[in-house]
Amino acid sequence: MNQITTENLKSELDLFALTYKDDSALDKMVELCMCNRLEVNEMVGEWMAYSTNKKGLVITVENLEQFEHEGSQKRALTTPEHPRSKRGAALLPSPGLLLSPASFSHSVTPSQKYNQRGGKGEVVVTFGAVQGTRWVGRKAGESVQVELLDGPEDSLRCSYKYMFQRLRDVRNVLTQKIEELGESLKSHFQIEDFCPASLPAQDSITVLGQVCCDSNGKLNAQSVLLEAGPEQGGQQVPVDLSELKEYSLFPGQVVVMEGMNTTGRKLMVSKLYERTNSTSLTVAEPVNVLVACGPYAPSDSLTFDPLLDLINVIVRDRPDVCILLGPFVDSKHEQIEKAQVTEPFEAIFFRCVQSILDGTKSVGCHLVFVPSQRDTHHHPIYPQPPFTLPNHLEDQRVTLVPDPCTLLIDGVTFGLTSTDILFHMGAEEISCGTGSDRFSRILKHMLTQRSYYPLYPPVEEVNMDYEKFEIFAQMPLTPDILIIPSELRYFVKDVVGCVCVNPGRLTKGQVGGTYSRLLIQHSASEDGKRVSPCLAAQVVKI
């Protein structure tokens, strides 16, 4: 394919005296050439045939989007009995062909609500210095280093003991977490020693333990217990929070409390201790990162139009790294729940990956795939092993990571999880007088507890393997950026020096959702203070 540029396109349009509205229309036409693998003269010929039938349209972004949309509708409904015309075949991008619903579903009807959505490309959240920011990646040939911070992930591919775990082993994991966080807090706040929580004492004491509930119901201010570690007696003590002006607690939280326990029956808490840790890695060049989370198809159709639209965004913006979180083959999709697909779930996933690889080949961006508990074809267990791909899909641009994981992108640390811990903890947390919003409180808990899933016990839908949890679900350090998609509203927040991003989901039921883009560059610490590497971030409607 010859080089496709706006100059070449202008010359071809001038040759046929075709008019265009502005430069954005030319950019859109160049994008269509790349996505559909068409030469400039082929694209102009396609447009002339289309616009002639429409009584001579001016080339605008809106008209080009309609041109692209109508072409995709014709592609999806093609059958062996009604073969595709040569013109239609030329316009068909490889991703669209692979994701044609006729290949794996009885229903080929596109989602009307998704196709009629408004606000395409609208920016709904901004963070940092977005004024004048160019959302494009580095020049071609400038590589970005992407690697897992924790090293080899192969051990997550081995057998799990879920449903065969001994209670003693689970208890040991939880005890280890209490002791590790306790030692860190003791050192940071220069605490001399922890006292047994259940022994009567006339003076104020400092105790270490884990928050739990006195029943199977929801935690509230009157039902809080502190369960001490083995070194502090291992007993559960009721806690009185009435003297605290503010607090935020959840089941499973490791805390250090200071207070009085004159009778040995109840701890009157007067102070809570918490802290975070930090990192001081550096990076020279700014990096453009795109983040999207599934589902990648609307709930009423398996056309995967949102995924194809995302591929077009990647081609247009040319990010350095794309972080794509599941679900890719959503277990909650209407047609999957009703067993209306005609192809194995894993084969549909491979089609998605092949489409992404083919569609972004001209960009050369690095692709990071993160599994989800909702991926029908994958193991629904936490922590979740990375995807596996057949040999023909192996690519140097692809990094397969587990859920959760800590990733290094040119030295900037990213914490990634596709599990909706915001939703899970939001239903269990209790608070009083904190003055902060619920999202910030939960995110701060995750960072101070150094865990991607600090809630205990977990919600029923999370199949926890505590042996793997101890090794792979902890935060080795506070990440620079935490990617934490949720059903709850999208946001970008700075929480204790960590930029936390909920990109939303690419589809919300039958309508379009959102994705996020970030421009990052790690700076050296100033006077020992953590400096955010996130220069700018946005959440954008697909």
TrEMBL record:
<keyword id="KW-0235">DNA replication</keyword>
<feature type="domain" description="DNA polymerase alpha/delta/epsilon subunit B">
    <location>
        <begin position="289"/>
        <end position="493"/>
    </location>
</feature>
<dbReference type="InterPro" id="IPR016722">
    <property type="entry name" value="DNA_pol_alpha_bsu"/>
</dbReference>
<dbReference type="Pfam" id="PF22062">
    <property type="entry name" value="OB_DPOA2"/>
</dbReference>
<dbReference type="GO" id="GO:0003677">
    <property type="term" value="F:DNA binding"/>
</dbReference>
<dbReference type="GO" id="GO:0005658">
    <property type="term" value="C:alpha DNA polymerase:primase complex"/>
</dbReference>
<dbReference type="InterPro" id="IPR043034">
    <property type="entry name" value="DNA_pol_alpha_B_N_sf"/>
</dbReference>
<dbReference type="GO" id="GO:0006270">
    <property type="term" value="P:DNA replication initiation"/>
</dbReference>
<dbReference type="InterPro" id="IPR013627">
    <property type="entry name" value="Pol_alpha_B_N"/>
</dbReference>
<feature type="region of interest" description="Disordered">
    <location>
        <begin position="69"/>
        <end position="88"/>
    </location>
</feature>
<keyword id="KW-0539">Nucleus</keyword>
<feature type="domain" description="DNA polymerase alpha subunit B OB">
    <location>
        <begin position="171"/>
        <end position="274"/>
    </location>
</feature>
<comment type="similarity">
    <text>Belongs to the DNA polymerase alpha subunit B family.</text>
</comment>
<dbReference type="InterPro" id="IPR054300">
    <property type="entry name" value="OB_DPOA2"/>
</dbReference>
<dbReference type="Pfam" id="PF04042">
    <property type="entry name" value="DNA_pol_E_B"/>
</dbReference>
<dbReference type="Pfam" id="PF08418">
    <property type="entry name" value="Pol_alpha_B_N"/>
</dbReference>
<dbReference type="InterPro" id="IPR007185">
    <property type="entry name" value="DNA_pol_a/d/e_bsu"/>
</dbReference>
<protein>
    <recommendedName>
        <fullName>DNA polymerase alpha subunit B</fullName>
    </recommendedName>
</protein>
<feature type="domain" description="DNA polymerase alpha subunit B N-terminal">
    <location>
        <begin position="7"/>
        <end position="73"/>
    </location>
</feature>
